[in-house]
Amino acid sequence: MEQNRAILLCVTKLREEEQRIIDHLRDLGVQVQVNLDSMELPLGEPDVHSFGIALIRCLSQKNALNRAHLLELAGLETLNSVKAITICTNKIHQAIVFQKHGIPQPQYKVAFTPEKLFQALQTFGDLCVIKPATSSWGRGIARITGKECLDGWIAARESVDPGHQSFPVLVQEYVEKGDFDIRVVIVGSKPIAAFRRVSADNWKTNTHLGAEIDPLEINDEMASICKQIIEVLGEGIYGADLFFDYKQQRYVVCEVNQNPEFAKSWKIHGVDVAYHIAQYVKAAIERKNKANLTVISR
User: Fold this and answer.
1) What gap in Å lies between CA 161 and CA 278, rounded to an integer?
2) For residue 241, which of 178, 218, 224, 254 is within the disulfide window of CB 3.0 to 4.6 Å?
3) Over the stretch 166-216, which tens digit does the pLDDT of each residue have?
4) 176-275 classified as CATH 3.30.1330.60
5) How far is residue 117's CA from residue 157's CA, in Å, rounded to a whole number?
């Protein structure tokens, strides 16, 4: 495969999203080699230089980070970068980094022991959300509505994790966001689509849990937050989940996903996310090749 027209696509399995990305890349003249989680990575010479870039779309956050790290160490640029994946796949890392850079988000505490959870609960007025450092699709996230509720949560956790290996955990204030959150899809350095995820029956608004899609225009405040996110994480492919905090009358970042799904949502909001990703990947390869050519010519 020609170095300047090929990518390595790291996936757990080929879902509809990845197949559409492949189809668009091939239409754009970019060759694609699929690499499953169960397959060896091309880490040595000359294999690693057969590709212009590696696109990381693994379902497992751990696999995504591990494979991206190995490829980057071998000299292959990855999308997203190891830095971005590291921050995005750990909710505690993300909260600390966003606070450092002034990105609006819910107030939070990091609890290293069950005892510290009670202090955090009191800080947030007996209403808070506990999140494991690493999880996706809303798994392991609990809304705590008082001391008795927290007692029950701790007892349940201790039955499966007596050594408290799941700590530290992230504790956030509960944001009065109504029955929806907002997903903004970012490709490269620009937000390309936004939609509400509405759930009347569940305080969690993940589409994986049945939330409905309601297309939304990207306003100036959303665009400004996305710009801040890119300045911190670097260009890439992200799903930024926002709350509209009705108490403070502003948007805050719930979290940023480094491997956004779009098979269901794009059919409703009409923005072909796979095409935008393919265009961005092609442009990234061309920029890299141009930079390499400039170095060689010198």
Assistant:
1) 42
2) 254
3) 999 999 999 999 999 999 999 999 999 999 999 887 787 777 667 899 999
4) no
5) 13
